[in-house]
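Onboarding guide, step 5: your first structure request.
Type a short instruction followed by the sequence, for example:

Predict the 3D structure of this protein.
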Amino acid sequence: MSFGRLTRRLSALTGIAALAAVAGTAPAGADPVPDVWPLVAVGDETAHNSLQDVVAIGPRSAWAFGRISSDGGDEPLAVRWNGRSWARVALPAGAGKGIRFADASGPRNVWAFSGGYAGIDPVYALRWNGRSWTVAHRWPHQVVLDDAEVIGPRDVWAFGSYTNLLGDRAWHYDGRRWAEVPTPIGALKHAHALRADHILAVGHRSGSSTEALLARWNGRTWTEVELPDLPRETDHYTIFDGVHAVSERDVWLYGREVRRDGDRNMHEFLLLHYDGSTWQRIGDFLPWMRLTYAYALTPDGQGGIWLVPNGNDWPELLHYRDGRWTQAKVDLLTGPNGAALDIANVPHSRLVWVVGSTPVSSGTWNWTVWSNKASSPHIRQPRPPRPAK
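The system replies with structure tokens like these:
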């Protein structure tokens, strides 16, 4: 059931005119002026809130999830794109805390996970069947979840660990029950599935947080995937933050190269691409880029990728294709503040959604959705913020 209080909107024509004015052509020799992606939805909650994950199912179906924080505690947040607008959707009572990540195999099989935190937050999975949300599973408090992959109604994976001595685990749902699946090669933290017998997951080898690992599930077991030489020393090592497989011959792997300098850890962004035969390290970043890591990566629908980088000194979005980096920004309602946290490409299209939060006139940070296709007649933009009283 959708809440009565929906998103604020702005005429699409106004947004298109603003976009055209900002995304102009730079003079010869000057840094190019980045495109600016307009807002398409902004929440109207009275407590601080943010979207942290977005799942793009199709041109008329998408979900985004996060957390609402108030004096009364935290609660999960879900908003839905129905092909016309984004609106908040009610979740089961008593779920508690926020949602950290989600995935879907179709509009009638959407899963959202709380993740847990250090044995404090409740750990659960919610499931949308096309009509309503239900609590599909609860884990003990000793579990912390890091990611999940939804391949079908009877094929769902969750990855995480126990905070006690039981260590790293994966869990698999077969349509009837959840079962633990040992991962003896290491801790698997983030995953992406092409199909049931081709799941890639990144993490680190058992017993060593400095030995980065890429693993594959072939339908029977997890095995390590060979990678080019990467630093694996105690003072110079690699951390993988995510993997995305467009196909078996188009795989993107991103993370950080870490160097220890005394008590400090220096992080440098790492991006690898597999073309079906070899892994290539992608560099040649824009001269001003001081990139340390990325929150998320998604295909652009044209053979390239979009990145959501971290930090306040970087553009909110980076694009790479055919050996060339460019930048884009997301439009902010009330000045320079705002946060883009996740990005997702709509399958078989160039439409991309970005989610995060921005401060509105009341000073409250509210959930926000941006898109690179705001000129679409199906996408309406929010009205400017109301003046503070």
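Each response can be followed by summary notes, for example: The chain is about 5% helix and 50% strand.
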